[in-house]
């Protein structure tokens, strides 16, 4: 039974008409003067920022530390590079020299992080053998690092894969299983002193879309991530080097995904940078009627823009050039960064 408590969600604003008592959100481009208080036992209510408990306000306002030299005071783009035969959108498109070339193109288009994955996490995907995943990812990471200085992330659930990737030049570990699949993975990251991204998923890729169920998806995901952040700190990872990701599409229905997106600013209360990975996902196709994943670019960019408006620091995307164009115009039109 989840503990009965209040949860504090900043209501982000980017309007230039900023009240003098408004506070900066996570040291970034948004501010807030109101906070929504959420609970499992009562209806949401809105309070003034001046009535927020001090320790909560500190977590909401404190600037986020740089990650591997990358500051979190402006929106950042993470480019997706799946070196897999079966990923839902780009499976089989990138291998060998083509993968390195695509990584270079994403970096030139504006990606400040390149996320390399060798195991598909699409619904229904099967687990890949460790040796196969290493063979897919480590040489590509080494090739990328020989060509560009961009921060490289390894997208894996497995400690040996992460270890090989870090030796090849990766500087961030991104685990869709929230560091619950392999008990040795957190130790690998801690020993290397690299930042990590911890994501929420209900079930594993093979079964996660089999009737996912929550008491309250927003608060359940928050509680999970809060517990995982504490576990990673206990494992030796610095608290200011942890990114949180609510895991859109990982064991969630359409309604679950929308509930998370509409109130994603809640996760700033964890005191960590927030990452959103919604690019080309099925819920976008469901809402727009676009069946082909690769044709969901416009919908994906719209979700990214909504995330920037809630202070989300990192968006993980397939279409870097289009997202960068949107970000340039969003920043210019809002004057928020």
Overview of the structural elements:
This protein is α/β, with parallel strands linked by helices. It has one domain: TIM Barrel. The chain contains ten helices and 13 strands. It has helices spanning 54-61, 96-109, 130-145, 159-168, 185-192, 217-234, 254-262, 282-288, 297-308, 320-334; strands at residues 6-10, 23-24, 31-32, 34-39, 45-48, 76-82, 113-117, 151-155, 172-175, 196-199, 242-245, 275-276, 314-317. It has an eight-stranded parallel beta sheet. Strand 7 (113-117), helix 3 and strand 8 (151-155) form a beta-alpha-beta unit. It is globular.
Largest sheet strand order? 11-10-9-8-7-6-13-12
Task: Categorize the overall geometry.
Answer: globular
- Quote the beta fraction: 15-25%
- CATH domain fold name: TIM Barrel
User: Mind summarizing the main beta sheet?
Assistant: 8 strands, parallel
In DSSP terms (H or I, runs of 4 or more residues), the helix count works out at: 10
**Beginning-to-end CA distance, first to last residue:** 41 Å
**Which regions contain 5 or more consecutive residues with pLDDT less than 50?**
none
Assembly state: single chain
**Helix fraction?**
25-40%
What is the CATH architecture term? Answer: Alpha-Beta Barrel
What's the gyration radius in Å?
Answer: 19 Å
Counted beta strands: 13
**Element-by-element helix/strand order:** EEEEEHEHEHEHEHEHEHEHHEH
Overall tally of domains = 1
Structural class: alpha/beta
Q: CATH class, anyone?
A: Alpha Beta
Mean pLDDT: 93
The CATH superfamily bears the name Dihydropteroate synthase-like
